[in-house]
């Protein structure tokens, strides 16, 4: 009998408490989790590990999340197609954010204060169900 392979999620979050909550929540839902606390590590891990989906904060050390998203989309076929959910405290009312979103097609843009963790997990599952 074959066991279903766990979906792999890269969680990019520099805030330790939020990262732990997200990792714990996704592991409870039977995801394999990868962690990155800055944009450089996130970009490298995404290309090396090829997660099924990326949960990406925007305000990050070293390289911000919008730059990570732009670099991924330009990198290769994997980077162009991997679903990315932006999870941030920034409202998408800044022109720069709207431009990057329009050009780089993230799956969702979620403002942390508007969503609870269970909702974020459901959005990830919903997005992955469309790519199976």
TrEMBL record:
Matches recorded under InterPro entries: Bact_response_regulator, CheY-like_superfamily, Sig_transdc_resp-reg_receiver
Repeat among keywords: no
GO biological process: phosphorelay signal transduction system
Domain of life per record: Bacteria
PTM sites of type 4-aspartylphosphate: 57
Keywords: Phosphoprotein, Two-component regulatory system
A family per Pfam: Response_reg
The keyword Phosphoprotein appears for this protein: yes
Positions of the Response regulatory domain: 8-128
Record-given protein name: Response regulatory domain-containing protein
């Amino acid at each position: 009998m074959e066991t279903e392979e766990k979906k792999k999620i890269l969680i990019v979050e520099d805030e330790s408490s939020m990262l732990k909550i997200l990792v714990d929540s996704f592991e409870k839902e039977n995801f394999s989790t990868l962690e990155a606390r800055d944009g450089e590590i996130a970009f490298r891990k995404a290309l090396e590990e090829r997660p099924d989906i990326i949960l990406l904060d925007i305000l990050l050390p070293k390289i911000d999340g919008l730059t990570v998203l732009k670099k991924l989309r330009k990198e290769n076929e994997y980077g162009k197609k991997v679903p990315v959910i932006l999870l941030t405290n920034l409202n998408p009312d800044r022109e720069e954010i709207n431009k990057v979103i329009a050009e780089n097609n993230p799956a969702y843009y979620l403002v942390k204060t508007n969503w609870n963790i269970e909702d974020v997990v459901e959005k990830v599952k919903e997005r992955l169900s469309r790519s199976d």
